[in-house]
Amino acid sequence: MIQDNTTEAIRVNARKTDVFDIFNFKNYAGPNPYLDTGALVFDFALTDEQEVLALEDYVKAISARYPELRDEEYSSHAHLFARTASEVAKLDMDLHVNRWSIREHGNHHQIAIQSLYARTTRGVIYFVWDWFEAITRDSDVAFEEQLTTLQNRFRSSVYGGPTVYALLRTADRKGIPAFYLWEEGLMQYGFGKKHVRGVATTFDGDSHLDSDFTTRKDDCKAFLKTLGFPVPQGDIIVCEREALSVAREIGYPIAIKPVVGHKGIGVTADVQGPKELEAAYGRALKAIPEDQPTRIIVEKSIKGSDFRLLCVNGRFVAAVERRPASIIGDGYSTIDELIQKENQKPVRRDTPTSPMSKIQCDEAMEIYLEEQELSLASVIEKGKRVFLRKVANLSAGGVSIDATPTMHPDNIILAQDIAQHFRLTCLGIDVISENLGKSWKEGNFVILEINAAPGVMMHLNPAVGDSVDVPSHILETFFSSKDDARIPIITFNKVSIHDLQETIDHILSQHPDWTIGAVCQDAVFVNRSRKISNPDYNTNVQSLLRNPKLDLLIVEYSEEILERDGMFYYGSNMVVLDNPTETEMMLSRDILDGSTLVVKKGDSIMLHRKGLIEEYSLGEDEPFTRVYLKEIGTIV
């Protein structure tokens, strides 16, 4: 490894042909001595085995891919490496990772890069390392291929789903704490008694009965009909013979879909006759999970456009039109070639932030092309548009168009009347209509189904039209401001069990009904009750913040813990430092606005409260506890 007390560079991970070396990786899930956020920290050094190029040569090569880096100034190769890694870490997905830091340590540098998902960030660092080495050797690197691999790695992470990521990013922008609960497979927003947990747009306060009810499309349709809302004529069938019978009764065209399903899987619209019905029935049957009975909806297919209406907390917030995937002919390319070209467009990067997914080729597409007397090998005349499927499935390459401004007041009331019958934070209502600007009372408007866990990206980042900030609407349902997501937190750099218990007792004397969580290196408490301690320090902190009854948290973060694990949370309402080390002073860095800082150095006390600074000395035999216990009243 690279030793601080020598000028000789010793190779750790570098190959004999490498100019640079990367080593000593440390991952922090939260604030740490290097950044005030989760970060991947590593050492960077020159090997001195090969001749390094001039700094401007690397800048020239890198700025060809990232022009914004061209006009910035860099003090060293390490500085450029850190800046490049920070930019690549966004993965061309506009991820909210833009913080980094660098420290010089003799013959190597310590770099910290903001990180959402350590496995992806580490892959980014190794990729940038390969890129720098390739520049040195004047060779190429498979940039787009490697970037795609990293994008897919992030997409497979717990934060990679479009809806989860949109909520995470919005929470970060609003200052609302958010983190993943690995054992539960849930996201948590907020702390203690202020927190909510959920999966995408489903939350712990939602009715699981209502959520389950929306998946039973037949029962839900009957319920909507009972309320007087417009639903298509049809029935539930269990075999193909019954499907043919219902189709004859209601008349073609019809739509066929499984009772249990999502994302348009197994759905076929505009079925024109018995032959198409046979294929559509097979697709619906195939989409039914093995543990579910055969129950398929056959209903009248209504002409019009496919719309999703979204309600949050019982109120209408957005509408989007969904159109099936299509291509436009150029007179010489086949449909298959046109799809490949379309899928190369940046808007179809198929990432959590891209407005469109890649067009998927499947049996349903091929059947629909056959109905148009086409195939993937067909050449389409220039300027002619060919739709590739009947169903406007966005996950298969469909196009989203914002329709929120066009909503007729009657249609807004309709959506809200439906939503208010369900104890669900978010409700998606799928309808067919010729024009949302016309009242549903005028006819040719039907409700296809409702969804308890609607996605948000079609509204937040539509392919056409303005963005509707649905994630903000969702989070504002729970938190009117960032303060509503937090409970008071007191952070010490050192505190004994005796002083910790004294602090708990002091607060309980003023707030006897409170639940107080406390953790130090030696114990975990909830009020006066000592609890089982997890070997992983930050797991204890998380478990307390996960407690839905917790009113206040007290935590000790010593230099040892800060260097080894970092902090779990950002922001303290009160920080108490007892002869702090340089590393422990970072606790004052992460203090919230309007909070209290108490620092003891020897017998000297510095008190910083709401912009005012007071300095004095401890009296003879005056305990330090007396100082900070008196100040606790300013934050609780």
Provide an overview of this structure.
The chain has 19 helices and 28 strands. By secondary structure, the protein is α+β, with helices and mostly antiparallel strands. The protein folds into five domains: 20-156, no CATH class; 162-204, no CATH class; 233-300, 2-Layer Sandwich (Dna Ligase, domain 1); 305-478, ATP-grasp fold, B domain (D-amino Acid Aminotransferase, Chain A, domain 1, 2-Layer Sandwich); 487-633, Rossmann fold (3-Layer(aba) Sandwich), CATH 3.40.50. The protein has a nine-stranded mixed sheet, with helices on both faces. Helix 2 crosses helix 3, helix 5 packs across helix 14 and helix 8 crosses helix 9 (274-287). The longest helix is centred in the first third of the chain and has 19 residues, at 118-136. It starts with 19 loop residues before the first strand and ends with a helix. The relative contact order is 0.10. InterPro entries: ATP-grasp, CPAse_ATP-bd. It holds the Pfam family CPSase_L_D2.
At CATH level 2, the architecture of the largest domain is: 2-Layer Sandwich
How many structurally independent domains?
5
Low-confidence stretches: 1-9
The CATH C-level class name of the largest domain: Alpha Beta
Considering the protein shown, what is the CATH homologous superfamily of the largest domain? ATP-grasp fold, B domain
Radius of gyration: 30 Å
Note the total helix count: 19
Alpha carbon gap, first and last residue: 49 Å
The third-level CATH topology of the largest domain is D-amino Acid Aminotransferase, Chain A, domain 1
What proportion of the residues form beta strands (DSSP E)? Answer: 15-25%
What characterizes the major β-sheet? 9 strands, mixed
Q: Calculate the mean pLDDT score and round it.
A: 92
Helix content: 25-40%
Number of strands: 28
Shape: globular
> Structural class per helix/strand content?
alpha+beta
Strand order of the largest sheet: 23-22-21-24-20-25-26-27-28
Protein name: ATP-grasp domain-containing protein
GO biological process, one term: SOS response
Pfam family, one: CPSase_L_D2
Domain ATP-grasp: 221-479
